TrEMBL record:
The chain crosses the membrane at residues 1152-1174. Keywords: Membrane, Signal, Transmembrane, Transmembrane helix. It holds the Pfam family CEMIP_beta-hel. It comes from Potamilus streckersoni. Residues 26-120 form the CEMIP beta-helix domain. InterPro entries: CEMIP_beta-hel_dom (IPR055401), Fibrocystin (IPR052387), Pectin_lyase_fold/virulence (IPR011050). It comes from the Eukaryota. This is CEMIP beta-helix domain-containing protein.
């Protein structure tokens, strides 16, 4: 039974009979001892073989009472008690020892588990609890004690926080488990808030009370003592990626938290914190981790994170007693409160009040981990620390924990400009923050803020032991900053700079969370653009994104009172209108007003800061817009949410002559512009009148200084009253707005007098388009530095940037034309865009050139970056006096612009041919040869050979007749006009080797008369199945001048045919597969294939031709081969042939030299042998070191190898000595104290005197 773990069991259940009866069992068990009961491995509920199982017995009643009381279970093979569909059961006063998986397991309703003792529960998989009751409903858990469960003591559902059922869990003890009690994210909790109360948990190895679930939690009325981490909490959800927000919370209240009591034994206990970075010490409680998704515990690390931080969340600690956090064990440090070392992304506020401290060292109250530099990589936090350990707040409301009403904040500036690994320094500050908005000059960072990190005051003290700052007098809050754009994971906005205007000023940088995605087994390289900034209530802050500002952003303060507020002045890189919404309702800027016609306009300040929101007096959402600087300032108060949306509008800046405001008739400009664009008058608003040289205090009647006055006009929809609503009237779509912008751009650039259109003098026009949709390709490539206002100047000249240079007919122009537009000052005008293309079309001017000529290629191209680049224009026919016209074909309004080239001639094309042969050519076997007409310049096949109405004939002949063979067959044919090919169907070659054919091509009419030479290597029938074992490249020389005899292609072809056919016919057992020549006298390279024997025979034969001076008669000259022959790059040595040049001499030594080398080598060898023999017999002059008696070296026998090994001379072979020689003969002090033998690697005791 023990071997099989298969014991007795009791099952109480129900059954039905065929006759229709239904029977329910019941059992009352008390004072029963169960020994070796249950059956291991049968844990499924439909076949639960526990010591005792109640299954589907229904609700206990007086008629069928059931309970288990006062029983003893020990050494079982399964859970002791299982209750499944057995409602109202009482499990009371049982002693359970050594069970498997669980001691008590219930999923039933109204189970009472009271006064039970469970000891030593064996786990089988995952985190199993001695008392498993998570799926039970309305559980009563009283006066139980669990010890030594290999995983969890209790796994129970808890109670609803405010249900009044806290009394159902009373006085339950758990110790010496891995976890005292806990919940995991996969536990399907039905509560909106879960309370775990009235537990006494001590000496649990990892966690005393572990909460990791979706509902809010209240952990109250507990005692947690000497656990690795006494209380750990993680609250999950909702999704920050979906921008879901809930003010989540975790409460710890009325609880005793003890580090190490005086009875704790440092040597006997293996308890330690599972959190790193604190020397294995214990932790009272950790900051609650608020995460937007499960960390899949316990499959993955219990304290780790696998999702972005949640947006909202606050931890509240009240009426908690911390005791015995002192330096009690060496090399271990305990802390009352610590951050979660497994959370790198973001910490939410911790608020504490009414704390009691007993025997808690001040240095051990708080511990904030340093950021983990291993997370600084492209797959996690990228190039700087993530924020959890750098944006942490603990606030003591009444001074009961910190000793004074104060806050602890993390040292966000840690290793700023010190450790480059952290990627933190002034060089990471956004460039816009360091730029003067008026002059564009670079600012000294210290002129903005001299200090780094989170805002502090003179009452802040750096606590190195806490790794944070202790501050009084500042109400710290967490400000959440969200990008609501669709590309929130793919467009990086960080680092985000927060500038605090307090004291000397503070600059803090925020990186955001790490990548948590998995794409095909790799991280997705996506990071959520949601940031947590630590700010102080009642203060003003500036904020700058590093890259393009989001089009839709959201701001909120976590856990702030309604009286607490901050003012944020955020820089937005686009000039488009910014609309502020407070809890979804539009808030008009303080410096804006509505005109009687309903248009919104910005008011001019009479003094600087007139409309700036006041953080102490203005309501949440109050805002101010500075169009000139791109700054929007707004008030954020809790619990209100502020959202900023970039309006989808066109911004147009018209430059007008200087004038007074009274002289400017804005209404006329708006009316004329609306009429021109055919849009309602209400869609156009003058939002600003700018004079950069005037002061803001100028009065209305004053004349604007400077050359011009700039009027900024907004075209688009009015703000909607609700954030997801629409404006008044019919809204213009994005496409309609873009078409309006294109209309304006084209009208201005095409040279239309926009002044006439608007009935006012316009000196310049700049346009900022509506922003592309977030997540689109256009938005991904959007650059705010180049995509703000774009100046559009009218074009004054249309000209060639590069004039064309023609080529022959059918060939692309050797220089393609490039066109451009210039303004009145001769500067390039960039017309159009990728979405609003300006196009130019080229054509042959009527009456120029050949009447039927066609302009080929891409005749219509777009302007890109100001230039229209043609790339492949060509003219089909030769002709004289061609002119090309270039006319703007798009947009329509610019079609009056045209340009013509200078007259040019197109010469006839140079014609050639290409030869095609299928298969091999055999001597005296008719062969089919096909010719294609090609352009001799481009080498491209001419598809339309009848482009000029010509027909084409061709005749074939050998370049020269000789005694080796002739060319016969049908030697004339015609090119087929439909295929462009000429076919010789039966050419017959009587000579083997290279045959050079001259094709004479004539057109009709006789415009073209061309010669093309092709080579065909003819094989004999014996070559067809010849085995090629060797290929040799043979280089020969003729002494004649190459340029005199072979300067033309025809001469070279005749010469190659003569030489190639000679050697091919003389050596018929091999095949000549290639022949070429080059200058250097006449250097000929011949390629020969065949068997090794036959190729070698051919080499000898050629060598014989060199020696015998075989004549070659060419061009009325008898030529002879020079005494030179190189085979595969190596000089060939035959019987009498071979190199005679100085080059060849250097490759061979005189026999006398070789003899001298041999004699010298023998003498050296003899001398070496004599030297070795002498060494073996030699004695050292010092008699105390006798190499024949080396017993002190370990008693090794003397051999030649050992002699050479141990000798201390330059001829020694040894690497290290086994032991040094006696002191009197030791030549140096270089020997180590411990020496490892190179032979057997054993340690040898040093010589006693060697230490001196």
């Amino acid at each position: 039974m023990d071997a099989e773990s298969f014991g007795a069991r009791i099952i109480v259940s129900s059954r039905s009979e065929n006759g229709g009866g239904f029977f329910t069992g019941h059992a009352r068990l008390s004072n029963v001892e169960f020994v070796n009961t249950g059956q291991k491995g049968y844990f499924e509920l439909d076949d639960a073989r526990f010591s005792i199982t109640y299954s589907d017995t229904g609700t206990v009643s007086s008629i069928k009472p059931s309970y288990v009381k006062g029983c003893a279970f020990h050494d079982g093979f399964s859970p002791a008690i299982g209750l499944f569909g057995a409602n109202g059961m009482i499990i009371e006063n049982n002693v359970i020892h050594h069970t498997v998986k669980h001691a008590i397991w219930t999923t039933s309703v109204n189970t009472t588990i009271r006064g039970n003792l469970a000891v030593l529960n064996i786990w089988t998989e995952s985190y199993e609890a001695a008392i498993e009751a998570f799926e039970a409903t309305n559980l009563t858990l009283l006066d139980n004690a669990v010890s030594a469960s290999e995983r969890m003591c209790y796994h129970v559902p808890g109670t609803e926080c405010d249900s009044g059922n806290a009394g159902k869990y009373i006085n339950n003890i758990g110790h010496s488990c891995l976890i005292g009690t806990g919940l995991f994210p996969h536990d399907a909790n039905v509560h909106s808030c879960t309370r775990l109360a009235n537990f006494s948990l001590w000496k649990n190895h990892d966690y005393g009370l572990y909460y990791n679930n979706y509902p809010n939690t209240k952990l109250t009325d507990n005692m947690v003592i000497e656990n690795g981490v006494n209380i750990f909490s993680m609250v999950v959800g909702p999704s920050s990626l979906e921008h879901q927000y809930d003010n989540k919370f975790a409460f710890v209240a009325n609880t005793l938290i003890v580090g190490r009591t005086s009875s704790f034994s440092c040597s006997d206990n293996g308890l330690h914190s599972p959190l790193g970075g604190i020397n294995g010490g214990m932790v009272g409680l950790t900051w609650t981790t608020f995460t937007s998704g499960s960390n899949n515990a316990p499959v993955y690390p219990l304290a780790g994170i696998m999702a972005y931080p949640a947006i909202g969340g606050t931890m509240h600690v009240s009426d908690v007693t911390f005791a015995y956090f002192q330096t009690s064990c060496p090399n271990q440090t305990d802390y009352a409160i610590a951050t979660n070392e497994g959370n790198d992304d973001g910490n939410h506020p911790l608020i504490i009040e009414r704390a009691t401290l007993e025997f808690v060292d001040d240095a051990l109250k708080v511990f904030i981990h340093r950021p983990n530099t291993e997370k600084i990589n492209s797959a996690d936090c990228v190039d700087m620390d993530c924020d959890a350990k750098k944006k942490t707040i603990l606030t003591d409301l009444d001074g009961s924990f910190l000793g004074k009403q104060a806050s602890v904040i993390s040292q966000s500036e840690f290793e700023w400009d010190v450790n480059p690994v952290r990627g933190l320094g002034d060089y990471r500050i956004p460039k816009e923050l360091l730029t003067d908005f008026v002059t564009g000059a670079r600012l000294d960072v210290n002129s903005i803020a001299k200090k780094r990190g989170i805002i502090r005051n003179e009452n802040c003290t750096l606590r190195a032991d806490w790794q944070g700052w202790l501050c009084q007098g500042l109400d710290y809050l967490v400000l959440t900053i969200e990008s609501m754009d669709a590309d929130t994971e793919t467009r990086r906005l960080s680092p985000v700079a927060i500038v605090a205007h307090y004291g000397e000023g503070y600059i803090d940088l925020i990186n955001g969370p790490q990548d948590h995605g998995w794409c095909a087994g790799y991280t997705c390289r996506k990071r959520l653009s949601t940031f947590q900034a630590v700010v102080a209530a009642g203060h003003n802050f500036d904020m700058f994104f590093t890259s393009t500002s989001p089009q839709h952003s959201r701001y909120l303060l976590l856990d702030a009172s309604e009286s607490q507020a901050v003012r944020i002045c955020a820089y937005y890189s686009q000039p488009n209108r910014l609309d502020v919404y407070h809890d979804g309702t539009y808030v008009l800027p303080k410096n804006a007003a509505y005109t009687p016609t309903g248009a919104m306009v910005l008011k001019r300040e009479t003094y600087e800061g007139q409309y700036m929101p006041n953080v102490n007096t203005d309501a949440s959402g109050t805002n101010y817009i500075n169009i000139k600087t791109g700054i929007i300032c707004f008030i954020v108060k809790s619990p209100r949410v502020i959202e900023i949306k970039t309006a989808e509008v066109i911004m147009v800046a018209f430059g007008l002559p200087m004038m007074t405001v009274d002289d400017f008739f804005g209404q006329n400009l708006v009316q004329n512009l609306a009429a021109f664009l055919s849009i309602p008058y209400s869609k156009i608003r003058i939002v600003n009148i700018i004079n950069e040289q005037s002061s803001s205090g100028r009065h209305k009647r004053e004349t604007f200084a400077g050359d011009k006055t700039t009027i900024e006009v907004e075209i688009g929809n009015l703000p909607s009253s609700e954030i997801n609503g629409t404006g008044s009237g019919v809204d213009l779509s994005h496409e309609e707005l873009m078409n309006i912008s294109y209309t304006l751009q084209n009208e201005i650039q095409s040279g239309t007098n926009i002044s006439d259109v608007l009935n006012t003098t316009i000196l310049s026009t700049s346009i900022a388009n509506p922003l592309p949709s977030p997540g689109s390709e256009e938005w991904a490539s959007f650059n705010p530095k180049t995509s703000r206002y774009v100046i559009y100047n009218p074009v004054q000249r249309f000209e060639f940037h590069t004039a064309l240079t023609p080529a022959s007919e059918g060939s692309q122009f050797s220089v393609q034309p490039v066109l451009k537009f210039l303004d009145e000052n001769g500067y390039l005008v960039v017309v159009g865009s990728a979405e609003n293309e300006w196009q130019v079309t080229a054509s042959i001017h009527p009456g120029s050139g050949y009447p039927w000529a066609v302009l080929n290629g891409n005749v219509t191209v777009s302007f890109v970056n100001g230039f229209a680049n043609f790339t492949d224009l060509s003219i089909s026919h030769m002709g004289y006096g061609y002119i090309l016209d270039f006319i703007i074909s798009a947009p329509t309004v610019a079609q009056h612009w045209n340009l013509s080239s200078e007259p040019f001639d197109v010469p006839g094309r140079k014609i050639s041919a290409s030869q095609n042969i299928s298969g091999i050519v055999i001597q005296n076997d008719p062969t089919k040869v096909i010719l294609d007409l090609i352009d001799a310049i481009s080498l491209q096949k001419i598809e339309n050979i009848a482009w000029t109405g010509h027909t084409w004939n061709v005749t074939a002949s050998l370049v020269s007749e000789n005694s080796y063979g002739t060319l016969t067959g049908t030697l004339s044919t015609t090119f087929n006009p439909s295929t462009g090919k000429a076919t010789f169907s039966n050419l017959n070659f009587t000579a083997i080797g290279p045959n050079y054919i001259k094709y004479h091509i004539l057109s009709e009419p006789a415009w073209y008369d061309e010669i093309y030479i092709g080579v065909i290597h003819v094989m004999s029938s014996s070559h067809v199945n010849m085995v090629v074992e060797k290929t040799a490249d043979i280089i020969l020389k003729f002494p004649q001048d190459y340029n005199q005899y072979l300067s033309t292609e025809t001469a070279r072809s005749e010469f190659h045919q003569l030489v190639g056919q000679y050697f091919a016919n003389k050596n018929p057992d091999t095949q000549i597969t290639g022949i070429s020549s080059r200058p250097g006298s006449i250097v000929v390279t011949i390629t020969v294939d065949g068997t090794t024997y036959n190729v070698n025979a051919t080499l000898f034969s050629i060598c014989d031709d060199i020696e015998s001076q075989t004549p070659f008669n060419f061009s009325s000259t008898t030529m002879y081969l020079s005494s030179y022959m190189v085979v595969d790059g190596v000089s060939y040595y035959g019987v009498t042939c071979g190199p005679k040049s100085s080059t060849e001499t250097t490759q061979s030594l005189h026999p006398v030299i070789w003899a001298a080398i041999g004699v010298t080598s023998i003498l050296i060898l003899v001398a070496l042998i004599i030297f070795i023999l002498w060494k073996c017999k030699a004695y050292h002059k010092t008699k105390t070191h006798d190499n024949d008696k080396i017993s002190y070296l370990g008693g090794y026998q003397k051999t030649v190898e050992r002699q050479l090994l141990f000798e201390n001379s330059f001829t020694s072979l040894r690497g290290e000595m086994i032991s040094p020689p006696p002191l009197g003969t030791q030549l140096s002090e270089k020997y180590p104290k411990r020496i490892r033998s190179p032979l057997n690697r054993i340690q040898v005791t040093p010589h006693p005197l060697s230490q001196f």
